[in-house]
Amino acid sequence: MKRTPFEQSIENSETIKFNGSEMPLAYWNLIMTKRDLDMWCKFGMKPHRHWKVSDVKQYFGIKGSKESLYNDFIEKYGHLIPSTEGK
Q1: Which of 2, 62, 64, 85 is positioned for an S-S bond with 68, CB 3.0–4.6 A?
Q2: In a domain? residue 27
Q3: 84 pLDDT exceeds 90?
């Protein structure tokens, strides 16, 4: 099965410097995409003029309309980043 660029980034241990420390690039993209997808699905706003939902679909290997795309993404997000709500 073909791996997504997101999965490849995790396996390659690519990192970026954020606030003076190293952070996995895949997790940075996951967090930023959650913000962008929230804005697009809930408010119909593109985060910036070059943003395309097809890039999100390709990078994370998800498909569907706004609702199913968002739900699939949040499910993947929830498995990788634990919820801090209610703590």
Answers
A1: 64
A2: no
A3: no
**Residue 2 is assigned to a structural domain of this protein:** yes
How far does the chain reach from its first CA to its final CA, in angstroms?
38
Structure tokens at 52: 């395309």
Q: Which two tokens stand for residue 42?
A: 């809930």
- Tally of domains within the chain: 1
3-state secondary structure the chain: CCCCHHHHHHHCCCEEEECCEEEEHHHHHHHHHHHHHHHHHHHCCCCCCCCCHHHHHHHHCCCCCHHHHHHHHHHHHHHHCCCCCCC
- Host domain of residue 76: 1-6+34-81
For a pLDDT cut of 90, what percent of the chain falls above it? 61
